[in-house]
Design brief:
There is one protein chain. With 80 residues, this protein is mainly alpha-helical. It has a domain of 36 residues. The chain is 71% helix and 0% strand. The two termini are 24 Å apart.
Length: 80
């Protein structure tokens, strides 16, 4: 997905939200994210938190840990 598609999809999601409190929370989250500079969050993490996130990233990148969309839908069918 390119940036234009992401923006379009994001706008569509926002337009579908009816819960005003949720919209306010999302707005504040996006506002905070847009004000922070690159690396600011990373530098606030402890060394052990940084290491844990790097481990998680490695796990996510491994194809052995991936689950197909079909498997996830089948597993969670009762909630879909």
């Amino acid at each position: 997905m390119n940036a234009l598609e992401i923006r379009t999809n994001f706008h569509q999601l926002i337009d579908q939200i009816k819960n005003e409190q949720l919209l306010i929370r999302l707005y504040h989250l996006m506002e905070q994210a847009s004000l922070s500079t690159d690396g600011q969050l990373w530098s606030r993490l402890s060394e052990s938190e940084q290491i844990e996130l790097l481990k998680i990233e490695q796990e996510v990148q491994s194809e052995d840990n991936l689950i197909s969309n079909e498997q996830m839908q089948s597993k969670h069918q009762k909630w879909l």
